[in-house]
Write a structure and sequence with these properties.
heterodimer, A: 247 residues, mainly alpha, 74% helix, flat, B: 311 residues, alpha/beta, four-stranded antiparallel sheet, 13 strands, 25% strand, globular
Chain lengths: 247, 311
């Protein structure tokens, strides 16, 4: 068995154990507390918090996928080529605009809660998926796309049977980048009352308790690492299916 | 039968193909030859409407190609291209099955057709059906590319520089194989090439194009003997003419009764090969064999006579 796999399995187990029974990890975090402060954050159910955190990320990335992949497909069609500069601009603005500023701007319109965080994550995650979809679709060998058309495939058949399967590894890589960024960025949602793991970190900051900050950060970090690995594995599988040799 | 009438393609003021008319009789190979930018590929791609003509008509077996949807038309026309264009994410079998599946054939018929084609192209079905294209050699990929083009039992096969990516040794074998397969299944072929040798050796008729115009469309012997323009003459090459003529004539046509010494030459070899053999072995005549049995002899001076300009 490979050491990397053992490490990941162990990480997943520890994460699950911590989320299900956080109190049993009290001795681990006690050295980081002062003046008998509680070592474990117990004001909320950590498992539920992690689930809501993950749900927010999944929703934002899912909608981001629909928009980004849709735009990526649109601008690589002959009829949609003129939308390329505009789509690039939208995705770039989404990436350059700080999520915290998005929160500040959307709270007046959407109120406190998960909605502003959803918008911030959505905008922030568009660019990697869009750019990778674009690169994936435009790097499909011209002779392959030509053969598909020449064989009598309709434009739709060419897209779904040839172009998308061949672009899939790169599109997945874009979704991976976007998801991992969103997992960590979602923590700021707690500043506008979205239920995310950021709550634990903010509680630590407010009560000057490093143990809370540490466990909030570690849980988010572990989720990001495991998600990253799951996507990397899926990308390799997709690349193999796309007929590419994978090292 | 393919009938092309007054076909033109323009992009703005530029005419890429100008008023081209030609007919390809059923079961023949027409080779379109020209330099790059001559419009030969555009002409080919207008036949299956990968490029829509600006003017003119194309009829296949009497039916106007513009009378049906382009993708439906393409399923009835085989299309093989340089660098094969195989789908890298599909197995060899799935690649070949592309058009039959688009046509909605039953599974059993598709599978039988895939195996039949692999056999025809000398690839063992059990060994190659489930391989990925990246696991094949260049020559095998090219054969699978042509097999895929023929899978839907098209009456017409279009080939765009089909041998362009092959090295010279494999290329000659691939050309011979194509000729043999074409004789067997009787498909009408239109192929594009920049190689006049390939056009002359494969084409029943050769179409020479330059700057969008069809300069000459004739059997190879006529192209060599009576080039219509200076350009065609230059393409054939004055110094190469006798040898090209000889390469069109099978030894069987020059064979006479009598006997000769030395190694026999096959009656299917070209006169050019026979001259080379005689010169090399310092002989003035050689026996001619048909399937291993001597049927007569061929003389060097009779062979050389065939390389002279027609009276």
């Amino acid at each position: 068995m490979r050491p990397g796999l053992v490490f990941r399995a162990a990480l997943a187990l520890v994460l699950a154990a911590f989320l299900i029974a956080p109190s049993s990890f009290a001795p681990v975090f006690r050295p980081f507390t002062q003046n008998d402060a509680p070592p474990i954050y117990l004001q909320a159910d950590l498992l539920g918090l992690a689930a809501q955190h993950a749900l927010l990320v999944v929703l934002a990335v899912a909608v981001g996928c629909v928009i980004s992949i849709g735009l990526g497909i649109l601008v690589t069609r002959p009829s949609g080529r003129e939308f390329l500069p505009m789509s690039r601009a939208i995705a770039n603005i989404g990436q350059t605009f700080p999520p915290i500023a998005v929160l500040a701007l959307t709270v007046p319109a959407l109120g406190f809660g998960p909605a502003p965080t959803f918008v911030a994550l959505l905008l922030y995650g568009l660019l990697p998926i869009f750019e990778n979809t674009l690169t994936g679709l435009s790097s499909v060998d011209r002779s392959v796309a030509e053969a598909a058309r020449g064989s009598g495939m309709t434009d739709r058949q060419t897209l779904f049977q040839v172009e998308l399967p061949l672009a899939l590894p790169l599109i997945l890589a874009g979704i991976r980048i976007s998801t991992v960024i969103s997992i960590s960025t979602a923590t700021i949602g707690s500043t506008v009352a979205a239920r995310t793991l950021g709550e634990v970190i903010i509680a630590g900051l407010q009560s000057n308790n490093p143990a809370f900050i540490l466990q909030g950060g570690l849980v988010v970090g572990a989720m990001a690492i495991l998600t990253h690995d799951a996507f990397t594995w899926a990308e390799k599988a997709a690349a193999r299916r796309a007929g590419r040799r994978v090292a | 039968m393919i009938e092309i009438e007054q076909l033109t393609k323009s992009y703005g003021p530029n005419h890429v193909v100008k008023d081209v008319s030609l007919k390809v009789p059923t079961g023949e190979i027409a080779a379109i030859v020209g330099t790059s930018g001559s419009g030969k590929t555009t002409l080919l791609r207008m036949i299956n409407r990968l490029v829509e003509p600006s003017a003119g008509t194309i009829r296949i077996d009497g039916e106007d190609t513009s009378s049906q949807e382009a993708h439906a038309l393409r399923r009835r026309i085989g299309y093989a291209i340089q660098g094969h264009g195989l789908f890298p994410h599909r197995t060899v079998g799935q690649n070949i099955a592309t058009v039959p599946e688009l046509l909605g054939w039953e599974k059993a018929r598709v599978n039988a057709r895939v195996d039949e084609l692999l056999d025809l192209f000398q690839l063992d079905p059990d060994a190659y059906r489930d391989r990925m294209p990246s696991e094949l050699s260049g020559g095998q990929q090219q054969r699978v590319g042509v097999a895929r083009a023929l899978a839907g039992e098209p009456g017409v096969l279009l080939m765009d520089e089909p041998f362009g990516a092959l090295d010279p040794v494999i290329r000659q074998k691939a050309q011979e194989d194509l000729r043999a397969i074409q004789r067997r299944i009787g498909t009408t072929i239109v192929m594009v090439t920049h190689d006049i040798d390939e056009a002359i050796s494969l084409g029943d008729r050769v179409a020479v194009m330059d700057d969008g115009c069809l300069l000459q469309y004739a059997p190879p012997a006529e192209i060599i003997a009576r080039p219509a323009t200076e350009f065609v003459g230059a393409l054939v090459g004055a110094g190469e003419r006798p040898y090209r003529m000889l390469s069109l004539i099978p030894v069987g046509d020059v064979t006479e009764d009598g006997s000769a010494e030395g190694k026999a030459i096959s009656d299917e070899a070209t006169a050019r090969d026979a001259v080379a053999e005689l010169l090399w072995s310092r002989r003035s005549s050689a026996p001619v064999a048909r399937r291993g049995e001597v049927i007569g002899r061929v003389r060097l001076d009779a062979l050389l006579e065939m390389g002279a300009a027609p009276a």
